[in-house]
Amino acid sequence: MVETNIEKHLPLTEATYYILLALVGPKHGYAVMQDAEEISQGTIRLAPGTLYGAFTTLENNDLISMVGKEGRRKIYQITETGIRVLLGQIQRMEIMLQSAAKNFDLWQERTAEEE
Amino acid sequence: MTTQLITKRKWFWAWNDEKEEAWLTKMAKQGLHLDRIPFPGSYQFRNGDPADYIYRLDYQSLKTKDKDSYLQLFSDAGWENVGEMGGWMYFRYKVTNGEAPEIFSDRDSKIGKYQRVMLYLVIFLPIMLLLMNNTSSVDESGLFSTILQGLSALLMLLYAYGMIQLIIRISKLKKTN
Questions:
Q1: Residue-wise pLDDT tens digits, A47-92
Q2: Is the separation of the CB atoms in A48 and A56 below 8 Å?
């Protein structure tokens, strides 16, 4: 396997993160828009112009690839490299959460209340 | 009801796309709905009932094979493609419950649109430089060459002005949040 440097893709923007996460399974553009909104609990709403541009960039960077067509809709899915980038991002976010749990009083109180 | 076509002539420069969007929205409120753009500066409207439409323009130089999926994505998201002129894609969205949808949901992709316009204009840079070279080296004083010199000077000024306007637009967008 070709060793690619995933660090250059990190950190992902919030929008890119949810696009990659949605594309863990094959989806066309509109399904990605709906899925991203749902899994982000409504915090991310992708507009079509933005998503189209993101697809182009992600495809050029080999993080996603077209796996089929459904009528006029292109179906994309995350690539091997994309999965490694996504894992790298999640690892970074874990570190961020752990640092808050360790160093931020207000966050510690909040998580204690929830338990 | 009979629908009639009304043609209006109006000129918008590439850096005035937001004014153009606002104008088309205003027309829709008067019952004039964009039907097609036969040539630059000419807008053909269908006369109908007044309606709340949001118009948005994108700039794309798409290959034919990519265009279908591009238009389909917009259509799935509720944006109707109503026209196209020289790379400018015209979309409208029927507002039903006060939403204010956009075709770009972040700053970078909105900047990307103006960067694509600039990239297109850069293609003309060699022609502009050639014109500038010719204009300065010709020293005949005939009427024809005077007109020609004047025209190319005007063209170059417009080109430079357009580029500056686009750069201003991009840097303003970069300053927002």
A1: 999 999 999 999 999 999 999 999 999 999 999 999 999 999 999 9
A2: no
Point out the residue among A13, A30, A45 whose CB comes nearest to the CB of B73.
A30
Give me the interface pTM, i.e. the ipTM: 0.89
**Domain span including residue A99:** 13-114
> Which CATH number covers residue A23?
1.10.10.10
Q: Do A48 and B73 touch (CB under 8 A)?
A: yes
Render pLDDT for B73-85 as a digit per residue (tens, 0 to 9): 999 999 999 999 9
Contact state of A48 with B68 under an 8 Å Cβ cutoff? no
What's CA B131's distance to the chain center, in Å? 25
> Are A49 and B69 within 8 A, CB to CB?
no
Task: Kindly write down the DSSP assignment for every residue of B97-118, as one continuous string.
Answer: SS----S--SHHHHHHHHHHHH
Domain count, chain A: 1
pTM: 0.88
- CA–CA separation, B76 and B70 (whole Å): 10
Instruction: Flag if A47 and B102 touch (Cβ within 8 Å).
Output: yes
The Cα–Cα gap between A54 and B130 comes to 37
Residue A69, min C-alpha distance to chain B (Å): 9
